[in-house]
Amino acid sequence: MGCLGNLIWIICGGLLSALSWVAAGCLWCITIIGIPVGIQCFKLASLSLCPFGKDVHYGGGTGSFLLNIIWFIVSGWALAAEHLIFGVLLCISIIGIPFGLKHLKLAKLALMPFGTQIY
Question: What is the pTM of this model?
Answer without folding.
Answer: 0.89
